[in-house]
Specification:
It is a single chain. This protein is of the alpha/beta class. It has a single domain (16-249), classed as Carbamate kinase. Helices cover 33% and strands 18% of the residues. It contains seven helices and eleven strands. The strands form two sheets. Strands 4-3-5-2-1-6-10-11-9 form a nine-stranded mixed sheet, with helices on both faces. A two-stranded antiparallel sheet has the order 7-8. The protein is globular and about 45 Å long.
């Protein structure tokens, strides 16, 4: 992936870390009280905040894209105009971003929220160069409101933003420990993949990220690591190169 001359990710990664700059993608479920819960629970948010704090203190520049399905998901409101429903979903992601920002700031981690929909009283506008400067200064940047346009998922947002800020990898936090050939919560014989190529994900229709996001990553050779974020320390273990979860890349 081509990097600009001023891009910090062109420098060496922090000692012991695989990457210097990463983007963590979290669905709205990461903020919910349980697998099917709604709303924002303090325990999972605080767990995320402490894990992210550890990563930043190791020198890894960390950005986050959050979903909003724990509050509202546009596609789940078929009676509504889809564009209007998607805008409501974008607003839900802002609530999650502010909750995560609050948890991080309470433990001393300087954080900025940037949104694709202007709301100057609570967040900065999405400006990639400003986001990069925040990252270089050791701040976590949380991106909310998707791409600011309906019909695009937060998966696609994560891929797009990761490329704009020159992240070296996407960490996809999920509630399972990687990518399986079928739902492991339903099929006890489901097989977990340690490694997949982008094209295989698309051909099999595997639930990693949506097809648009996978295609963006494939075109730009941006690796994706899918792992269970709920186990404390897993974000750090992933960045240190431990073989947990599933790596999706261009292969050999």
């Amino acid at each position: 992936m081509a990097l600009g001359p001023d891009d910090a990710s062109a420098e060496a990664s922090p000692s012991g870390m695989l990457y210097r700059r990463v983007l963590l993608k979290l669905s709205g479920d990461a903020f919910a009280p349980d697998d099917r819960g709604f709303g924002i629970a303090p325990e999972p948010v605080e767990l995320l905040a402490h894990q992210l704090s550890d990563v930043v203190h190791k020198g890894v520049q960390t950005a986050v894209v959050v979903g909003g399905g724990n509050i509202f998901r546009g596609r789940d409101a078929p009676q509504m105009d889809r564009a209007r429903a998607d805008y409501m979903g974008m607003l839900a992601t802002v609530m999650n971003a502010l909750a995560l920002q609050d948890a991080l700031e309470r433990i001393g981690v300087t954080t900025r929220v940037q949104t694709a929909i202007a709301m100057a009283q609570i967040a900065e506008p999405f400006i990639p160069l400003r986001a990069v400067r925040h990252l270089e200064r050791g701040r976590i940047v949380i991106f909310a409101a998707g791409l600011g346009r309906p019909f695009f998922s937060t998966d696609t947002t994560a891929a797009q933003v990761a490329l704009e800020i020159h992240a070296e990898a996407i960490l996809k936090g999920t509630r399972v420990d990687g990518v399986y050939d079928s739902d492991p919560n339903v099929n006890p014989d489901a097989v977990r993949f340690d490694h997949l190529e982008y094209i295989e994900v698309l051909k099999r229709g595997l639930q990693v990220m949506d097809a648009t996001a996978i295609s963006l990553c494939m075109e730009n050779k941006l690796p994706i690591i899918v792992f269970d974020y709920r186990e404390e320390g897993n974000i750090m273990r992933t960045l240190m190169g431990e073989r947990i979860g599933t790596l999706v890349d261009a292969g050999g």
